[in-house]
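User: Okay, second chain of the day. Same drill as before: sequence in, structure tokens out.
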Amino acid sequence: MEKKETLFMNQEKGYKYRDMLDLPHHISKTHPPMPIPDRAAQFAPFAALTGHHEAVKETARLTGTRIELDEYCKAAVDRTLQTIREQLKEEPHVLITYFVPDEKKTGGSYETAAGCVKKMDEYHRILTLTDGIRIPIDEIIEIERQ
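Assistant: Same drill. Structure tokens below.
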């Protein structure tokens, strides 16, 4: 009776497999032991949330707001574009600041391009420079002839 009680008490305390503790370590004859670097790789961290870091980074990325031009500034840009349209054959050199809408978020950024005007598509409202840059005319906030 005493032995059964001891076994029961050992199981309650977590010593259910106490009898196995003193057995020799088993080494398989068919499977070679795993190399230490491979064994450590089992415990390497993994990305449980794939893409989470990129999503947080995208959310933190700042975008600028679009500036609404007043009538005076719009008229100045239109006058300069009219002058460029008249001298298009000479490929006038210009410095243009324009808004580039962000593809993923509201807002965007302002970029400046310098170059010679190659083409002005009034139907699609796009200004094309000789280096291939295409600028939407409606996004231009400042244009200077050089």
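The domain at 71-145 is CATH 2.30.30 (SH3 type barrels.).

User: Thanks, on to the next one.
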